[in-house]
Amino acid sequence: MSRLNRSAVEAFAVLCSIVLFGVPLYFVFVNAMKSAQEASLMNMNWPSRVQLWTNIKEVVQIRDYMLLRAFWNSSLLTLLSIAVLIVVCSMAAFVMQRRSGRLSPWLNFLVLSGLIIPPAIVPTIWVLQKAALFKTLTGIVLVEVALSLPFCVLLYRGFMGAIPREIDEAAVVDGYGGYRLFFTIIFPLLKPVTATVIVTSSVSIFNDFTNPLYFFPGAKNATVQLTLYNFTSQFVSQWNLLFTDILLITIPPLVLFLFFNNKIVAGMTAGSVKG
C-alpha cells in the first residue's frame, strides 16, 4: 500500500471515529445545556440560553441527592470488583500458564465458555437468594467478577507467557514458596496488563446497567446508570435533565480512558509481541 493510500485510509478512519463518537457526545452536551422545551425538540441546534449549571444542580438535588449516593455505590462496586479481579485472575492465569496436566484442557474450556455462554438472570437470582446475597453489595460484586473473569484471565495468561520460567526456578532454588513467589516476583511484573484490566473492567463495571438492575435493586442501592430512570416515564420525560445526567456519568470513565489509553494498548499487545 502506497503512502498516499495509507494516509487516505487513516484519514477515513479518523473521520469515522469522529462521526461515531464525537457526534453523539456533542448531541448529549448540547441538549444538556437546553431548557426542557428546547431539549424536547431533540435536535443539535445550539440553545438560545445556556442553563447547564441550573440543570446540573437540579439533577444532583433530585430525589434527595440520589445521584451522589449512586456515584458512591458505583465507585465502591467498581473498586471492590477490580480488587477481586486482579488477585483472582492473576493467580488463576499463573497456575494455568505454569502448570499442565489432565485438568488443563478443561480449565481452558471453562474460561473460554465464560466468554461465549450468556448469563442466566433467573437462575443467578435464585442462587443469590439461596446464599442470602441478593440485593447485597457482596452479591453484585461476585456477579461482576464472574462476568469479567474469563476475559481478564486470558489477558493475564497471554502476558504471563512472556515471563521466562527461569525466574520461577531461580526463586524456588532460593527457597520461595508458591504464594511468596507469585506476589513477590511475578505479580510486580504484571503492571502493564494489570493497568489494562483496571481500565477496561472499571469502565464496563461502572457503566453496567443490567446487572445492578436485576441483582442489586432498591433506591438505596441505585448505581449511576439506574439514575436515568429518574427523568424518564411513560407520560413525561425531562430530556434536558436526562442528557445532563448522561453527561455527568460519562465524564469519569471518559477521563479514565483518555489518561490510560496507551497503557490499555500496551497491556493487551505486550504478551503477543514478546511471546
Describe the protein's topology.
Blueprint: H1 3-32, H2 36-39, H3 52-98, H4 104-116, H5 121-130, H6 137-160, H7 165-173, H8 178-186, H9 191-206, H10 210-215, H11 239-259, H12 261-274
Helix pairs in contact: 1-11, 3-6, 3-9, 3-11, 4-6, 6-9, 6-12, 7-8, 9-11, 9-12
Could you characterize the architecture of this molecule?
With 275 residues, this protein is mainly alpha-helical. It has a single domain, classed as MetI-like (MetI-like fold, Orthogonal Bundle). The protein has 12 helices and no strands. It has helices at 3-32, 36-39, 52-98, 104-116, 121-130, 137-160, 165-173, 178-186, 191-206, 210-215, 239-259, 261-274. α9 (191-206) packs antiparallel against α11 (239-259). The longest helix is centred in the N-terminal third of the chain and has 47 residues, at 52-98. The model has no long low-confidence stretch (mean pLDDT 87). It comes from Cohnella fermenti. The chain crosses the membrane at residues 12-33, 76-95, 107-128, 140-160, 181-206, 239-260. It is a multi-pass membrane protein. InterPro entries: MetI-like, MetI-like_sf. Residues 71-260 form the ABC transmembrane type-1 domain.
